[in-house]
Amino acid sequence: MGSVKHQPKITVGLMDRRSEVSGRMNGHYYGDGFGPLSHRFLARATEKTIVLFDEADREICRSQVIQLRSSKNSTFTLFGTTLGNGFHWEKREDQTFQGDLTLRLHKDGTITVINKTSIEDYLKSVISSEMNPASPMEFLKSHAILSRSWVLSGLGQRKRTEKTLNLTEKTKGRKVLRWYGREDHDLFDVCAGDHCQRYYGIGKKISRQAEEAVQKTQGMVITFQNKICDARYSKACGGFTEEYDTAWEDRRVPYLKGIPDASSPYQPIKTEEEARRWIVSEPNAYCNTKELGLLKKILPGLDRKTKNFFRWTVQYSRKELEKILQEKSGFDFGALQEIVPLQRGPSGRISHLKIVGSKRSLIVGKELEIRRWLSPTHLYSSAFIVKVEANQFIFQGAGWGHGVGLCQIGAAVMATQGFSTEQILKHYFRGIEIKKIY
Predict the structure, then answer these.
(1) The predicted structure's pLDDT at residue 180
(2) Residue 337 placed within a domain
(3) pLDDT tier at 182 (50, 70, 90 boundaries)?
């Protein structure tokens, strides 16, 4: 790992698989051989090209790739972008971005919308989107460093032309294992949603605190054995963080180990009885906070609607769950008989789950796919136990998200308790160093 002289530019996928995209140029944008463009625009996909129209519905150009370069201080607004795609907080809103805009025809005949921007400007939006910028500064700085690390680590992976699919699937007989990484983004470096990092543009004014956090940590990353860390994070671990291979491919990452999110020396979960005791308990942990004033201070508005994230309960009738399973998995299990955890990580999150029905039995994994199959959107996490009472399936669970790496709510609480940026990062990522590379 060597230093670089300048911060890199990155490409962010803002929209994907759209037949039509509309928005507004706030300032002047220039294409190859045309421009300046301003005001409203509409892009429509045809069978073999993208056609760009101005606000008077006049055709400006048509091409498989339309690149629009911004003039100084210009921004663009996209109408109807999706926030929280597929999750329980999903909604649509108009968003404004800075930097260049590219419209690219996907091989399936739809439009992909891509924003090219500097990594530091990107991070200012990420910090403002992931958590409330009113959070303690030591937490915001921690987030800036780990988010920068995750992006730069991913750019390095792309340069190595790794051939593994990002949506990786192993279907063998009665087993379906899927996990979602970043390599499936073949047209851009990262997406703008929760699959990568939230990047909601600059329309909701980027706060002074977020700018300060990024500026104070410019070029700083976490490293392990002199390599930039693939730093992961989730909203709330539930009291114990998770191993990398519970959520993704079968490999161990030394700095992504399960550790207690507390000063107490809790032990990793190894048996179903230990999982049951842990999930029905309320252990002392950094992310175990119900203080509404603190949560309002650290969570963005999008996340404040989510209640009881540390310990939660979801209940379905048998018929409801059979319908959800068929719709989300694509398999008809018939009459649902059993849901059996086969393999858990140290936080209690399930990586392999057996679903038994009258028509078929299947093993499903990993962590996110399990959550997807068992909810109209996604379960909060796969750290759950299941009880069947009077034809009702009752899921009792712990945490919000995959639980790997930094626990956002836990880290924010640590900052309120006086922990420094270095202490926070070295708590969640064991054996790492913090280095400035540009």
Answers:
(1) 80
(2) no
(3) low
Report in angstroms the alpha-carbon separations of 398 from 280, 282, 329.
8, 10, 23
Cβ neighbours for 389, distance < 8 A, ≥ 6 positions apart? none
DSSP letter (8 states) at residue 334: -
Cα torsion angle, 25, 30, 36, 37, sign = negative
One-letter amino acid for residue 143 of the chain: H
Q: Specify whether the CB–CB gap between 237 and 403 falls below 8 A.
A: yes
201: alpha, beta or left, given left = phi > 0 and alpha = psi -120 to 50? left
Domain count, the chain: 1
Residues 146, 299: Cα–Cα separation, whole Å: 18
User: Does some domain include residue 2?
Assistant: no
Establish if 146 belongs to a structural domain.
Answer: yes
Mean pLDDT of the chain: 90
- Nearest CA to 111 among 78, 87, 147? 78
Residue 427 has a pLDDT of 98
Q: Is 155 part of a structural domain of the chain?
A: yes
**Cβ neighbours of 220 (radius 10 Å):** 19
pTM of the model: 0.90
Q: What is the pLDDT of residues 391-408, one digit of tens each?
A: 999 999 999 999 999 999
C-alpha span between 45 and 53 (Å, rounded): 11
* Domain interval for residue 132: 9-209
Q: What is the DSSP letter of 72?
A: T
Residues 46 and 17: their CA atoms lie apart, in Å, by 13
Q: With both helix axes pointing from N to C terminus, report the angle between 119-130 and 137-159 in degrees, rounded to the nearest 10.
A: 130
